[in-house]
Amino acid sequence: MKFVKIYESQDFPSYLPKLNNLYDDLFSHGKGFRSRLVRLVGEKLSLKESIISLLSQTIEFIHNASLLHDDLVDRSALRRNKTTAWLKYTPEYAVLAGDYLLARVMVNLSKFGNLKLIQFTAEMISDLLEGEWIQDSLVRDFEIKLTQLDQVHNLKTGSLFKWCLQAPFFAVEIYDEDIHDLLKELGSILGLLFQRSDDLLDFDVRNYEDKAILGDLKSGYLNSFSVFLLKGASEEQRAKFIRSQSLEELKRIINENQFMMRLQEFDQINARLIDLYIHKIERLKSLLTPTQSLLCQDLIPLAKMLYWRKASS
Amino acid sequence: MNGPDASYFKTLSKSDSEFEAYLRGTFSNELMAVPVRTLNVQSQNEEVTFEVLVKKDISRPNFLLVLLKLLRPQTLTFSVGSMVVSFVAAQRMKIPLDFWLSILTIFAVLFFHAAINLLNDYYDHIKGHDRINPNGGSRAIQKAWIPAYQVQRLGFAFFALAVICGVPVLIQHSSLVVVLATLSALAGIEFSTHKLGLKNLGWGEYLVFLLTGPLLTCGFVWATSAYFLWQMLLLGCLFGFVSLLFYHFANIENIFLDSQVHRKTWAVHLGIDRAKKFLWVIAASILLSYTAFAISFALPQWPSRQTLLPEEQRDLLLLVSMFVILAVQLILICVQSNRLLSPLSSDFESIRNRSLRLHWLTVICMILALS
Fold first, then answer.
1. Does B40 touch chain A (CB under 8 A)?
2. Is A279 near chain B, with CB under 8 Å?
3. Span A50-106, pLDDT tens digits
4. Shortest distance, CA A140 to any CA of chain B (angstroms)
5. Which residue among A244, B15, B17, B162 has the highest number of C-beta atoms inside a 10 angstrom radius?
């Protein structure tokens, strides 16, 4: 996927070269999926290019600030196949760089002047942080259930997707509660699908980008697919599973057939979630004007694309 | 158009005429509606998305197992357990209890508690609490094992059984007992139906303490013997606090969701850290009530004599052993709770089960110590 340049050199102070270098490292190789989603919605709502750029930058800044902090919290060594910022530039710089991005967001949005959008953004950031905080408190909790993880992911991943869908509507001053409720629902479903698909990568399922595997498990965190795999597992299986160092070892513990069966079940549950997403889009369509409702056609394939990790047929 | 051979989604708002029928499960004989998403719960703009499933395609346990799940028999100790202990204690104190009235009262309360559990499931589903809380209630309605309206009917049936058993007890007694029993029944109904929303305003804890504690033990002995015994008040406090421990802990477990829907439980009010510390206060209250009851029950003459009779020595030994058992269990619960790091920790379940077992343990130990 093409790298989207989300900021210009004048966006950050030229007298802080290290900060600029850190951001160059951080933003390169990002897919910019969230900013693309903002653009998709913004264009259908006939937003001015400058506002679309502002919103796209906002979501990428917030997302990347969360990555800077997250990598430090998780002590992750790699991000997008490169050394993480806290390792390369020190933890202090990573924290400050993340904070600076969040501050820029507020500066830029307050210049735009839509108070509701600012409030909505601040709420999203607090949801995101709450989610990260709770997720961190669940490390080494090996009895966690899928419903509990969903609650965390709704805060952590879902909040960003909700923002991508809702923010352009705030920017054109559409505040209809029914529309926003539906957009919130759609964002929450997209976030869940994105997270679950990402969790599958950890088990090398549909890992087309060759991301590192078993990272979550090795850092003591049971992700949604681990929880699903461990449903009904014995204490012994569970203990061995947690200690697994390779996918082969893990599949020996779970049994390859069982693994495939569970994957099929997991996919079925998420396919149902995609159906629910499409049902909600139909509802949204009925609330939008004919021009705005063209957006729905573009939103429909997104859920499948996010979960199955490729363009839907 | 989707026919009854395939499942599909349907979203309804509170203002839609079919809304209640879908929630209650009365909209079709062949289909079941499982609420999968709820928006703006408990407001005029409430909107629910149902997954409509074909009844014959749903795998579910047989009716008896579903009923057992709905009745939540493990929680019946909160009412029946305390009454049985009151019965044994009153017998030991040589209070002339009417045996048949006692049996009828125990069954009346047992059926009433079952009715409360059923109606609680029904109303928590209708009001939305169990639709947004994935751990709320028995989950039988949300898993489409039984439609909500049938749970309500079962609740009414058990309520009728409670009335049938309770009426003979009430007509034997003064109007004060009738008034107290009626008030307790109304409080119990409020607890399950939330008509006044007291549970959401921080009154749930008081209701639990009174209904499973002093009101129950004193009321039971009063209704079956016409005696008011302050030992029963202490016994009631003991059981009330043990129930409160379980209820408060369950509220700590739900603090995340309760905060989001602005439900004002003590746990939400205190915040998770102080709520966990408050468990120590409840634990201390349990031990204090127990000690006060043990002294008042086993050693009423001791202060005047300054020496213990052999029978009193045996009672004292049993009661001290029971104190130690209780204290150890309480310390374990409080220490484990203090170690909880996350409001979503999976350890909540095991500690909740331990605090439920504590009630059973208290009942069993008390029966053994008193009989």
1. yes
2. yes
3. 999 999 999 999 999 999 998 998 888 888 778 999 999 999 999 999 999 999 999
4. 10
5. B162
